[in-house]
Amino acid sequence: MNRLFWIILSAVFAIFLWQALVLVTGAPSFILPTPFKVLQTLVASRELIAWHAAITITEVLVGLVIGSVLGALTALQLMIFPWLRRLVMPIMVFSQAVPVFALAPLLTLWFGYGIWSKVLMAVLIIYFPVASNFLDGLRNTHPGYLDLARTMRANPWQVLFRIRLPAALPNLGSGLKLASVYAPIGAIIGEWVGASNGLGYLMLLANGRAKIDLMFASLFVLAAFTVLLHLAVSWWANRLSERATGYSAG
Amino acid sequence: MSESVSLSGSLRVHDNTWLFRDISLSLHDEGWTCLLGPSGVGKTTVLRLLAGLETHGDFTGSIRTGSGSSMPECAYMAQQDLLFPWLNVLENVKLGARLRGEPVNADKAIEIISMVGLSNHSHKRPRELSGGMRQRVALARTLMEERDLVLLDEPFSALDARTRAEMQELAHELLQHRTVLLVTHDPGEAARLGDKIYILNEQGLEQVEAKKQAQIAPADGDETMRRQSFLLRQLRERVS
């Protein structure tokens, strides 16, 4: 309860600062609208914003699911085949040096203006953190567990699925938490580069027509969705981690 | 047919110094063999070699098992309980069969859990148990393996004095008729449990006592105390 109180207070404080900034600078509405003006626009354009938000949310969720599943499967494959790990890891690490955003125009060229170029952008951004976090967890199993398994003459598949995998769930959870924050960034970048709908497109459009209030309203919807998504994924990741360790993580 | 294992040889660690040289140790008789020594002389390494586990060093010599396989048929228990936090007590005890992909004898697991006095806790997760109870679960898991050869690597050393004494008694009772190797740095523990006692130190491995005892020696008995002081003296005198 106390925590909720501080969150609300902090929101009120932020709005107050914003309002004060507008008053002090005397910025016109088409440069920096007041919080109230943004709220008015949010209510007035709710159908327009909701329609575009639905597109973006679809892209983010589809990207999150595909990227997480691909990342987790990759980690398992790389764990099972050490030679594949040696072959692929340098490529994966090098690929992280390439700014993924620079690929956005290419993705639009290859996959068109629809949702798939954005989904792919989100997939590209979250794939590596999920795969590398999970792989770290799979590889860093407590050596005592492996000793025990060895004296028990465990079968290697059982070691992977009954020891390494459950012990790595907290790491998979950390990867997913990161992914939930990165996925919306990927989708928005994709929309900026080439789209005919989605919140990113709407923000660019509003910006171009000096409808800064609409831009802020869209931005808030996007931020609110990202926070909710992160909270939901964190909750689930913590449950996963609690299952694995018996302790609840933060 | 009961399993046995023997080791003779030397082990060099990475900076090219010998951790131990020309030692030989053989486990084949029923009863408790204690390997007593200060920290850092390679007691655990000896046990790991016997168990067929990896060690940080170059071993030259031979390790022979009665079954002729490269790893002896043994049950292993370490200082850390190594319970899986995501499994409850019963599932932890059944671990061995699960990891081998064999059918699990659930009745036997329940019976063993009652032998270590944890019947009321079989559906709890390890974090809900005290350190002593967790080590009982580890003992139950070790018993579940039904091996003649049992390798214990300081399993009681992290416990408080009372719990440790109780665990020693429980382990002695439940591991009757098995070939047990106990690695320990505690002369009192060796005095209570050892049928054969070896001291490992910088000079090598030497057998200091052999006295077959059917029962565990009482923790505070005069004979145990005498034996404990003798072992402590031996430990201290042998340092050059």
**SS-based structural class of chain A?**
mainly alpha
How many domains of chain A? The number is 2
The fold-level CATH name of the largest domain in chain A is MetI-like fold
The main sheet of chain B orders its strands as 5-6-7-3-8-9
Sum up the overall morphology of chain A in one term: elongated
Number of helices of chain A: 10
| Mean of all residue-level pLDDT scores of chain B | 88
CATH class term of the largest domain in chain A:
Mainly Alpha
Oligomer: heterodimer
Measured by residues with Cβ under 8 Å of the partner chain's Cβ, the largest interface is:
A-B, 25 and 26 residues
What is the strand content of chain B? 25-35%
**Count of the domains of chain B:** 2
Number of strands of chain A: 0
Question: How would you sum up this structure, described in words?
Answer:
The complex is a heterodimer of chains A (250) and B (240). With 250 residues, chain A is mostly helical. Chain A has helices at residues 2-25, 35-44, 46-80, 82-97, 104-111, 115-139, 143-151, 156-193, 199-208, 212-245. Chain A has two domains: 1-32; 33-245, MetI-like (MetI-like fold), CATH 1.10.3720.10. In chain A, 84% of the residues lie in helices and 0% in strands. The two termini of chain A are 17 Å apart. Chain B folds into two domains: 1-73 and 147-240, 3-Layer(aba) Sandwich (Rossmann fold); 81-146. In chain B, the strands form two sheets. Chain B has a six-stranded mixed beta sheet with strand order 5-6-7-3-8-9, with helices on both faces. A three-stranded antiparallel beta sheet of chain B has the order 2-1-4, covered by helices on one side. The termini of chain B are far apart. The interface between A and B is medium-sized, with 25 and 26 residues.
